[in-house]
Write a structure and sequence with these properties.
Number of strands: 14
Largest sheet: 8 strands, mixed
Order of helices and strands: EHEEEHEHEHEHEHEHEHEHEHEHEHHH
Helix content: 40-55%
Distance between the termini: 12 Å
Structural class: alpha/beta
Length: 384
């Protein structure tokens, strides 16, 4: 039996995010595996343990420390893993760390884990130090943490080929051992019908019509380029709405309104968050098109979900998005007027053109990003 300890997600079940969905799907597909036992750290207000998908979920209490809370949580989780391994004499354990948060502690943890006969794997996520929300001192920390994590990981499992190439080039002197296993997705229609009352109520509440809105889904942060998407949409001649599903960020919203005056354009609609995944999938399915402005990170979960559900996908032209979308999407740049022109062009597409792009997008997901395939790749890595 190979024991795999996963730290760095908020935990399962219930929490929604890229890493949380990954851990949920991985344990789901391996829940009846006779040779794999998962141990998952879960952020909670009190300590305890429970079983989910046959995984042992151990709760870690992380105090409110602002940006440092995630670092404390990962360090405490790692210490709990080491204590459990020692107490139960686990042979050849794997500790799989998600993201770069605890680089300054990795040398110590790797040394302790090696003493216990284990190995340390890391998922490097994306270029966290490029996120504009961080102050310069936090960006400095992320760069340092990235370097130390690469230096003291036995294996880096990258969910993007571009991230893997970056690591091998940037840290060539460390001779990092890397492999590529993407994030996953599914091509399963929403169980909700078009006439379902839940979906119809959402449309009425948000003043939207099926096939008459473009959709944006993502965190409301500068590096996801909301400002460019909104500005260009306002420049376009489309008669459709722009439905923006995101968390509230009053400071950023106020700054954007001051610069763009988007409240004067009735097409721009901030529609809040949608945590009902069946409803969110139905919203994606009946969108005329999806706009994706993410430029920091590896394989983005919301992009995979869009390709699996939405026919017409308009993506910011960066290497990460090109790697995923290939010829199944349309691409725009930050050049003024570029996205506006693409929106006007997209409005002229026939039903057949949109359907063909949708088929290509779903084919792309089926060929490269199915959760079943991703779980099988992890099985090979963990049991090798």
């Amino acid at each position: 039996m190979r024991h795999v300890f996963i730290i760095g997600s908020k935990g399962i079940p219930g929490a929604y995010g890229g890493y949380e969905t990954f851990v949920d799907k991985l344990t789901e597909y391996h829940q009846n595996h006779s040779e794999l036992k998962y141990h998952v750290a879960c952020k909670a207000s009190k300590k305890g343990e429970f079983e989910y998908h046959n995984a042992r979920c151990f709760q870690i209490n992380a105090p409110e420390l602002g940006a440092a809370q995630a670092i404390f949580y990962d360090v405490a989780s790692f210490r709990a893993c080491l204590a459990y391994i020692r107490k139960n004499h686990i042979e050849h354990p794997i500790v799989y760390v998600l993201a770069y948060r605890i680089g300054p502690f990795m040398k110590h943890f790797q040394k302790e884990l090696h003493r216990l006969g284990g190995v340390l794997y890391t998922n490097p996520d994306g270029h966290e130090y490029l996120r504009r929300k961080w102050s310069w001192i936090i960006r400095k920390y992320w760069r340092l943490s990235e370097r130390l994590t690469v230096q003291h990981s036995d294996l880096l499992i990258c969910d993007s080929k571009n991230i893997e190439a970056y690591i091998r080039k940037q840290y060539a002197s460390f001779h990092p051992r890397t492999t590529y296993i993407s994030y996953g997705s599914e091509v399963v229609p929403s169980p909700l019908k078009d006439e379902d009352t839940v979906y119809q109520k959402w449309l009425r509440d948000k003043r939207l019509k099926p096939w008459h809105y473009y959709l944006v889904v993502g965190r409301f942060v500068p590096e996801n380029n909301f400002e460019i998407m909104i500005r260009e949409f306002m420049k376009s001649n489309t008669d459709k709405d722009l439905a923006i599903i995101t968390t509230a960020n009053r400071v950023f919203t106020k700054k954007l309104e001051k610069r763009l005056h988007f409240h004067s354009d009735k097409r721009i609609k901030f529609v809040g968050t949608v945590y009902d995944q069946d409803l969110l999938k139905k919203i994606r399915e009946n969108a005329y098109g999806y706009l994706h402005g993410h430029e920091v990170g590896g394989t983005n979960p919301s992009l995979l979900e869009a390709l699996g559900s939405t026919e017409l996908n308009l993506l910011l032209q960066v290497s990460f998005n090109r790697e995923v979308g290939k010829n199944a999407a349309l691409y725009w740049t930050k050049e003024p007027g570029n996205l506006a022109a693409l929106l006007d062009k997209a409005d002229t597409f026939s039903r057949e053109q949109r359907t063909e792009l949708g088929k290509q997008a779903r084919k792309r997901i089926c060929e490269a990003y199915r959760w079943e395939h991703i779980a099988a790749e992890y099985e090979k890595i963990f049991l090798s």
